[in-house]
């Protein structure tokens, strides 16, 4: 299971804008199903409108009793809901599609539910849903879904199962994946395989083998400039280095990645404190090591979620307070040790039995070659059919992949925009006149005219005349005492953009600054903000804002509001 929060199964944070206008559900139903999906994709950052679109899709499908489409609609509702609510919507998706002939359903509902439950650290429920997803995917010969389900099953097995068997099935999963290299999910599943195999080797106390796989993950992350995945593998490498006994390098890796903890799954804090505590004790820094182990204990007491490391943590705490002669605290941790050992033993038996009885790992291993042969035969005899089915699967599975990857990218872009804004505010801006005095070479216009036009443009910008929605090239040229040809040439060469882009970027920059500094402005609807900035529609404003800043205004507003909370 992914150490970082899985790209494919993250969900959008809700975007609430005071006074936002919600789309009319009845009117939306006049669109086709695919148009509604496209509209949903365009508005996914605006939770209220995205839910309205999904609701329209559901009602449209309900009117003709198309259960598969209804299931698809509830799946979309899950994408833009808080995680607990999302699980409820996925239950509806599953219920509606259990008898569906569609190649993606109901397995896709079980897959998403399994991932959400894993993020909530409900491991046994996650396992049950992953097992069910695997069975449905296998029944429908959906290899992509089988691979995804295998990763989820292996994630739980790596925590609570037979580590040797978990490693064996991780390697089988990787083999199946490489028989399906053209899948658009290949890169994501390959990272999952590298991480899963590395995790198994760590559990088996084979750190060198684990490091080899984590290194491959680091290389893949660097290729795609994926900072979060890179640091996830760096952190995992720290775990392996700690097992190896290379404590200095282990601590360096763990601390380097710790700055990105917000992007990692919930169990990360327990893992981090366990390994940091182990390192500190090994370096004879007992007090700091015990502090890390007490943090593991506090996490367990707060969440009541078991981890395999707990017995060792409590054993170390017992020994520490025994050496100090603190019998009361020693007894407290001894009781906790006895309690978690009993619970963990029961959990291991339960997970192992469930996997053995329902998932049938030995049978999977026997069927490995048969599945590969069937896949190759299917590709050879009916490639067109395979790709059409794969295409439908990819669209469904990658929809959330796209949403969540974009959400994570947006967050990085927002942080970068804030940093750039702070840097710009500390710099002294060069006078605009300097630009005007630059050579007019290549313009076929006298330098004097260029200087005059640049001065007029400076006044135009300072007076914020660009906020008028009626501004046009001919009108501005007249205001600058020149013709549209000269003005267009000067803007192209001196501003490095055409007239339309020039105006739009001035408006976008104004909206960017005003939203940052004016809380009242943030309370406007996107449509109202667009009008204030000179745009004729919310759509044209959002597109221009995204083009310049790489994020949508609704997301920018939400992040600004969160910073002030």
Helix content: over 70%
CATH-derived topology of the domain at 432-564 = Arc Repressor Mutant, subunit A
Amount of beta strand: under 5%
Distance, first to last CA: 33 Å
Structural overview:
The protein is mainly alpha-helical and 565 residues long. The chain has a domain at 432-564: Arc Repressor Mutant, subunit A (Orthogonal Bundle). The chain has helices at 25-28, 33-42, 47-63, 67-79, 83-97, 107-119, 123-139, 143-160, 163-178, 186-203, 207-223, 227-244, 247-258, 268-282, 286-303, 310-323, 327-359, 361-381, 383-426, 432-436, 447-462, 473-479, 484-495, 499-517, 519-522, 526-532, 538-549, 553-564. The protein is globular, with a radius of gyration of 29 Å.
Give a brief rundown of this model:
This protein is mainly alpha-helical and 565 residues long. The protein has helices spanning 25-28, 33-42, 47-63, 67-79, 83-97, 107-119, 123-139, 143-160, 163-178, 186-203, 207-223, 227-244, 247-258, 268-282, 286-303, 310-323, 327-359, 361-381, 383-426, 432-436, 447-462, 473-479, 484-495, 499-517, 519-522, 526-532, 538-549, 553-564.
